[in-house]
DNA sequence: TCTGGGGTCCTAGGACCC
DNA sequence: TCTGGGGTCCTAGGACCC
């Protein structure tokens, strides 16, 4: 353990939203929410003006809109954030060569690496204020909050205490008493599940955690987590600041506006994701042996399927083929809300593996074109159906994947073949309240009306949005 | 009006090998 | 013929972070 508060944790305030306010003066002083703006979007960052209305990170955008309808809702511009982040990180590196970025808006700085020793609380406070000024200058006006202490844990917690635009330096020797009155959830790694378990053992504050024996803690939360928590509770943290952490995995995933059932569509999307993963691997000069496909069902249960190759690859065709096979093994019948493709077991070299090469030649993999826009659109409610399903041209069936429904789409003979019939069974979701359009509501509630063999959908009828379908 | 996308780390069971 | 542990690798899932 070091004796001076020489570890800084720097955290940019409401970073994404602050960049937007910087670039668009009309947004300054106003509530700004950056995040997914689609049906299933969540909030990445809310400006402090928006936080007054209860808008928080990770909240669904729909919820945010209801809390703060007059805010500006913006999709993220990662390229701009990355640029700004680099300018900010450069200021930290000018202060000390040992900087560990945790994300675009956060980093640890170890001052001892710059040769500074015997730093007092006053010294560090002055350094932190200088750094904040430099960051503001380099970023076009962004503010940061800085925490400092004798360890990562203390610096990290301290940076959160005086947000925004604050500096908190914890005097050496006071760490355990600094933590004692706080909730256990201030300790990074203690999330809802761990907090719940600790709570059942009567532990809510760090002081109570300090009293709990290590054996008991391990019984509650497992061995690795338990022993590290035991040490962190008494502020015994000697984790080093590490500047170059190596990448362990690369992945791409997407949540769909409505749940997807159509295997050929999913396969096309999977192929595209495999190519994007490959591009990112190649850019980073990485390759990996394990391909993983991730699916999330309508009820949010998540499954992964993975397969490990004999040697590492960054070849889009190899990744795509393995992903296809894994996707084929996945159950998609209830509709999936998310699909992801990832590569792990990374190596920083590429094996010219005859095995994988020969596989390539056997099955050349062609990217299936995704329809840019649906050419034709059929939609409607039918008796016996309690959810809207919409068919698009080209044989895709897009379903909401909710509720009990058996719908036949027998009309569409498309270039990709007939649109198939499908059925979804999910008793739990049947109870969901629905608001079908008025003209269909009557039919919908009619008892025991048989499902027509060949329903006659309204063609080019009024658009039934997925929001209404829910 | 539920619940993103990019990650990291840990656990647990089974296969396999010595 | 019956029965050891230990170690490593792989797979699946879950908690957590920003």
Strand arrangement within the widest β-sheet reads: 5-6-1-7-8
Q: What is the fold named in CATH at topology level of the largest domain?
A: Alpha-Beta Plaits
Overall average residue pLDDT = 81
Number of DSSP strands? 20
| Helix share bin | 25-40%
Q: Give the N-to-C terminal Cα separation.
A: 55 Å
Please mark out the parts with pLDDT under 50 across 5 or more consecutive residues, or reply none. 357-363, 371-470
Named at the architecture level, the CATH assignment of the largest domain is 2-Layer Sandwich
Give an overview of the whole structure.
- This protein is of the alpha+beta class and 470 residues long.
- It has four domains: 1-170, Reverse transcriptase/Diguanylate cyclase domain (Alpha-Beta Plaits, 2-Layer Sandwich); 177-233, DNA polymerase, domain 1 (Orthogonal Bundle), CATH 1.10.150.20; 249-362, DNA polymerase, Y-family, little finger domain (Dna Ligase, domain 1); 377-469, no CATH class.
- The protein is built from 16 helices and 20 strands.
- The strands form six sheets. Strands 5-6-1-7-8 form a five-stranded mixed β-sheet. A four-stranded antiparallel β-sheet has the order 9-12-10-11, covered by helices on one side.
- The longest helix has 21 residues, at 263-283.
- The chain binds a DNA duplex (18 and 18 nucleotides) through helix 3, helix 8, helix 11, strand 9 and strand 11.
């Amino acid at each position: 353990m070091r004796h001076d508060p020489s570890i800084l944790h720097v955290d940019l305030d409401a970073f994404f939203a602050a960049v937007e306010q910087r670039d668009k003066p009309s947004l300054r002083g106003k509530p700004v929410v950056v995040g997914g703006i689609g049906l299933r979007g969540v909030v990445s960052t809310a400006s402090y003006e928006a936080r007054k209305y209860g808008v928080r990170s990770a909240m669904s955008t729909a919820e945010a809109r209801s809390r703060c309808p007059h805010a500006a809702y913006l999709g993220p511009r990662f390229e701009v954030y990355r640029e700004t982040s680099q300018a900010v990180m450069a200021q930290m590196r000018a202060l000390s060569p040992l900087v560990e970025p945790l994300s675009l808006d956060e980093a640890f700085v170890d001052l001892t690496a710059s040769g500074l020793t015997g730093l007092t609380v006053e010294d560090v406070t002055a350094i932190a204020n200088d750094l904040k000024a430099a960051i503001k200058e380099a970023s076009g006006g962004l503010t940061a909050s800085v925490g400092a202490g004798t360890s990562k844990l203390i610096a990290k917690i301290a940076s959160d205490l005086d947000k925004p635009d604050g500096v908190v330096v914890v005097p050496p020797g006071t760490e355990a008493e600094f933590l004692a009155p706080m909730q256990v959830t201030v300790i990074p790694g203690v999330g809802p599940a761990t907090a719940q378990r600790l709570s059942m053992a009567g532990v809510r504050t760090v002081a109570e955690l300090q009293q709990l024996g290590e054996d008991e803690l391990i019984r509650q939360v497992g061995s690795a987590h338990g022993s590290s928590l035991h040490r962190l509770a008494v502020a015994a943290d000697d984790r080093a600041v590490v500047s170059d952490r190596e990448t362990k995995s690369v992945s791409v995933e997407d949540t769909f506006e409505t749940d997807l059932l159509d295997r050929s569509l999913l396969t096309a999307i999977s192929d595209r994701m495999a190519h994007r993963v490959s591009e990112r691997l190649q850019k980073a000069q990485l390759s990996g042996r394990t391909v993983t496909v991730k699916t999330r069902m309508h009820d949010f249960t998540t499954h992964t399927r993975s397969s490990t190759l004999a040697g590492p690859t960054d070849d889009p065709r190899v990744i795509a083929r393995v992903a296809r096979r894994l996707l084929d093994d996945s159950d998609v019948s209830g509709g999936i809300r998310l699909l992801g493709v990832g590569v792990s077991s990374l190596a920083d070299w590429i094996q010219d593996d005859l095995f994988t090469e020969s596989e390539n030649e056997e099955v050349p993999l062609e990217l299936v074109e995704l329809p840019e826009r649906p050419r034709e659109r059929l939609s409607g409610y039918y008796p016996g159906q309690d959810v809207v399903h919409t068919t698009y041209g080209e044989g895709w069936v897009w379903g909401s994947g909710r509720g009990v429904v058996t719908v036949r789409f027998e009309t569409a003979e498309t270039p990709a073949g007939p649109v198939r019939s499908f059925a979804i069974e999910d008793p739990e979701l049947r109870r969901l309240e629905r608001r079908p359009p008025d003209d269909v509501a009557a039919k919908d509630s009619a008892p025991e009306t048989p499902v027509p063999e060949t329903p006659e959908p309204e063609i080019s009828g009024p658009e039934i949005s997925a929001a209404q379908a829910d």
